[in-house]
Amino acid sequence: MPNSNPERPVSTDTTEVVPEHPEHSDTPDQEDSNDIVHEGSCHCGKVKWVMRAPRVLQCVRCNCSICKKKSLIHYIVKREKFTLVQGGDKLKTYTFNTGVAQHRFCKKCGVQSFYIPRSNPNSISVMPNCIDSNTVDSIELSDFEGQNWDEAIKLNPPSSN
Ligand SMILES: [Zn+2]
């Protein structure tokens, strides 16, 4: 862009907001018209978040070592559709194996209401059972064979919504 005022130096100010995950700038916001705002929290309420998603949630049930023990069901959402409202300082993180999955849970009540999944580390996996608002019509489940993770991720990779 031409600088119309040569007296004025071109700004080198870099205070503009840098996207948190520039590698995922493919669809800044496709304005999914089915999206509404869901509100969720942990059990004690210290951790609260909102996300934009449809009323019908396409979720994944995984049978890997931790998801099986925790009975976790996942709704994987793009980061720009998820906002942590409060409680970031109340979160503890548990990692194991590759360390890619960041299992976040409230250190007061122990509830994992969302986390960073290994399958989509640039997205957020939300636990739909932690949605408090009366905004979910139904949950549609598909299975992910997390017991054989390396095979399953090739055959049937869970996609981010
Ligand atoms: Zn809590």
Keywords:
2 helices, mainly beta, Metal Binding Protein, Guanine Nucleotide Exchange Factor, Chain A, 161 residues, five-stranded mixed sheet, three-stranded antiparallel sheet, binds zinc ion
Folded structure, characterized:
The protein is mostly beta strands. The protein has a single domain (35-155), classed as Metal Binding Protein, Guanine Nucleotide Exchange Factor, Chain A. The chain contains two helices and ten strands. It has helices at 65-70, 149-155; strands spanning 36-41, 48-53, 56-62, 73-78, 82-86, 91-94, 103-106, 114-115, 123-126, 138-144. The strands form three sheets. Strands 8-9-4-3-10 form a five-stranded mixed beta sheet. The chain has a three-stranded antiparallel beta sheet with strand order 1-2-5, with no helix packed on it. Strands 6-7 form a two-stranded antiparallel ribbon. A hairpin with a 6-residue loop joins β1 (36-41) and β2. The longest helix is centred in the last third of the chain and has 7 residues, at 149-155. The model is unreliable at 9-26 (pLDDT under 50). The structure holds zinc ion. Zinc ion is lined by residues 42-44, 46-47, 106, 108-109, 111. Keywords: Metal-binding, Zinc. One of its GO terms (molecular function) is carbon-sulfur lyase activity. Residues 1-34 are annotated as: Disordered.
